[in-house]
């Protein structure tokens, strides 16, 4: 593990979460991000920004938040209903293919996030080390090979493209959290308490800030 100290002396982290979508009343990504901003890891300055669940608009809001906060690290967080633990995303792909409409009624199909952009980007995070840190905190976690093709992947790819083209010194990536318990009271789906998700995000932030070389352990998938 290699400690990384920014030139300005304070590590600035931008955390983003999403507004509710798909008929839900809450979005655990924003709930967890808000908790972390209110109680950040020691020595780290955290700013939270809520993104619209709208193609295009979410990237405009992300870009504005990056310009406003000038962060060293950006961690975007989204809801992944049905997943059983924290998912640290490995790769963003250059396609929007919406199974459901976004909150503005937009439903792009087979469109690039960035026309002419690369097919994919890898996260600028030590994803396996982040997963290990979350597990060490007693919370289930895994490396995810897909962030889907909805607004979460849209934002993940947009962030990666921003880093590749305009902010090469910035590091960042995307994390999915499961439903909050209040969302699944009447259906049999996995969930994770929001305070546990926030605890996991703190572990990920701390690991990302202090680690440059990722672990070389098997975290792949067979399908």
From TrEMBL:
It catalyses: Release of an N-terminal pyroglutamyl group from a polypeptide, the second amino acid generally not being Pro. It is an enzyme of class 3 (hydrolase). Signal peptide: none annotated. Keywords: Cytoplasm, Hydrolase, Protease, Thiol protease. Belongs to the peptidase C15 family. Removes 5-oxoproline from various penultimate amino acid residues except L-proline. This is Pyrrolidone-carboxylate peptidase. The gene is pcp.
């Amino acid at each position: 593990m290699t400690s990384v100290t920014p030139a300005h002396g304070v590590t600035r982290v931008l955390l983003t979460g999403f507004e509710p979508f798909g008929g839900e009343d809450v979005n655990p990504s924003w709930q967890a991000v808000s908790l972390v901003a209110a109680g950040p890891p020691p020595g780290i300055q955290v700013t939270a920004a809520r993104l619209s669940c709208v193609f295009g608009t979410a990237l405009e809001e992300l870009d504005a938040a990056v310009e406003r906060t000038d962060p060293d690290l950006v961690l975007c967080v989204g809801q992944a209903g049905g997943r059983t633990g924290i998912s640290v995303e490995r790769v963003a792909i250059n396609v929007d293919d919406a199974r459901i409409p976004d909150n503005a009624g937009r439903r792009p199909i087979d469109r690039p996030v960035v026309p002419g952009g690369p097919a994919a980007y890898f996260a600028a995070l030590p994803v396996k080390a982040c997963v290990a840190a979350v597990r060490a905190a007693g919370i289930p976690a895994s490396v995810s090979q897909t962030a889907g093709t909805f607004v979460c992947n849209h934002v993940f790819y947009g962030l990666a493209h921003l880093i590749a083209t305009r902010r090469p010194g910035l590091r960042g990536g995307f994390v999915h959290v499961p439903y909050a318990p209040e969302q699944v009271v009447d259906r049999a789906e996995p969930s994770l308490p929001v305070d546990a998700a926030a605890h996991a995000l703190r572990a990920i932030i701390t690991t990302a800030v202090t680690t440059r070389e990722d672990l070389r352990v098997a975290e792949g998938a067979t399908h």
